[in-house]
Please model this.
Amino acid sequence: MFEVIEQNIRTHIHNAREVLKNLKKIGRIQKEDDISYDIFMELLSHPSRDVRVEAVKNLGKFNSEYILLSLKQHYYEESDSLVKRECVSSIGRQRDSGQIDFFIDILQEKDPKIVLQAIRALLVFKTQEKVQKALKKLLNHPNEMIKEVLEIEFTKRPPRPKEKHSHVHPKLKNTVVNADVLHVLQLIKNESFHLTFTSPPYYNARDYSFYASYQEYLDFLRAVFKETHRLTKNGRFLIVNTSPVIVPRTSRKHSSKRYPIPFDVHALLVQDGWEFIDDIIWQKPEYSVKNRIGGFMQHRKPLAYKPNCTTEYLMVYRKKSRDLIDWNIKQYEEEIVKESKVKDGFETTNIWKLDPTFDKTHSAVFPRSLCDRIVKYYSFVGDLVFDPFGGSGTLGEVAHHLGRNFFLTEIDQNYFKRIQERLSSTLAYKQYFNLQEFQAWMQQEK
Ligand SMILES: C[S@@+](CC[C@H](N)C(=O)[O-])C[C@H]1O[C@@H](n2cnc3c(N)ncnc32)[C@H](O)[C@@H]1O
Model:
């Protein structure tokens, strides 16, 4: 079999596609196969880098001092980064402590992927002092992935809370507090929430919010999401619904101003320990704010094109964690995981076409269908779901309907009343507080 492949390669040596096709047919190579590596050595000088990569991969399957030396030599002669990386990977797979100096040497490489490959190879020998010393030097490496790998290896993980990951503080269950969210959050202890889904005020674009400046608004949101980060359980999610807003022009001499809220908030969130996961577009059937395209329709002059916006963003973040999502899932009883499984008919793309909803009291409410998806896709039955900007309480209502607990804060008294009205018929156990009452409640013994 191998002889046929080798012959095919030699016949079509100038046709990279044919060579590759044949190289890919070669599976594992065992000692007893008695295969000669000559053809792979020859292919190291093939003009196609893909062929060279496959040749290196195949050479890595042999256990031979001579091949190790040849791969090392090729590493230094090779100019293509992908082939170089494959050389490091093939040499690393030999787990030969005699190569430690080689791997330490290439930690200086510019291509972070080569450095990562060398780190992987060195971690096999991480108990050796020389290896530890070389790797620890990279803890301040400018590349974030390199830094992260080494932090996980060489720094202590933060202590885990006493409670089980699925635990919900009984005093926070199905609770609504009528106060400024920042005052409320400081009364709650770390790692209390499983999921936060919220739609913050739209800067000064709606009547219920007022900020002295855009910077003040961003500072406020940053403070709220920093506190939310502290209160979020290890590796759990935050989903922020925003869109750019327009603050209308003051006179004909000025233009209206458009604020890119999702993009500005994004930069702050990732700085503060939230890992970006996804951008989901909520597409509505029609634009909901002022018609922007009207003028252009008349004059058709370039530069003055302004489309009507029918979308909002749902930006998905995860509290940065050393644990994979699998760890989070494993913290739940099998029964809960089963009960929380998402049924058929779920959305498979990041464009969610959903109709908006209107409320008699509140001017900007979530549609229930939107909360329904977020709660189902990003939480388990029994979890505690939080909305810092509770509004009319849509998230609370939906969370309860889906067997989750909720915690909401809302500053406005009328909206707070609307929440009470909405929730009164839906569930027997719920608690409404103002700030002082909530403070007293949290201080009470058990
Ligand atoms: C876009 S609305 C949220 C609507 C909500 N998603 C719903 O479905 O009804 C934002 C809400 O944040 C509230 N809010 C603004 N500043 C706040 C603060 N500092 N603390 C708590 N709530 C605040 C506003 O009163 C408003 O109801």
